[in-house]
Design a protein that fits this description.
This protein is mainly alpha-helical. It has six helices and two strands; from the N terminus they run H-H-H-H-E-E-H-H.
Length: 141
């Protein structure tokens, strides 16, 4: 676990779990396992310049289902916060989304993976900003 997670990553998980070492360790191990089994998605998320390009998910989600998800869920990163400064801002436009249509057609697991993909992009954007600025940048819960 230590090889796969540096001090910044360990700190991020510890803070996200309110200082509980056991909870942070459990969450980190779960994330590392997921990232290992979805390594192509993780690589794409780290390099992602345009989160609206869902093509990396085609390895995991049927093309027809992915099109429905992309068409029905209206969400994306839209800059950074001013206070605190530099946090990626992700907005889900629930009023513009077609949730009933989406959930009636696409398996829940595919929607969950799509949302996890977007979360992974945010994680790596926070990580990159933290390393660039020297300040911890993370998503707020």
């Amino acid at each position: 676990c230590r090889r796969a997670a540096d001090d910044l990553t360990l700190l991020r998980y510890l803070l996200s779990n309110r200082g509980s070492v056991s909870s942070a360790g459990e969450a980190l191990l779960k994330a590392l396992k997921w990232r290992e089994s979805h390594s192509t998605l993780v690589s794409a998320a780290r390099a992602c310049a345009d989160e609206l390009d869902s093509s990396p998910l085609l390895e995991y989600i049927k093309p027809s289902d992915l099109k429905v998800i992309d068409d029905c869920l209206k969400a994306g990163f839209c800059g950074c916060t001013e206070k605190p400064s530099g946090y990626p801002l992700y907005v889900i436009q629930s009023g513009q989304s077609k949730l009933r249509e989406l959930m009636g057609v696409v398996p829940v697991e595919s929607v969950a993976l799509w949302l996890t993909w977007r979360n992974e992009i945010g994680f790596w954007r926070c990580d990159a900003a933290s390393r660039k600025t020297g300040f911890l940048v993370r998503s707020e819960e």
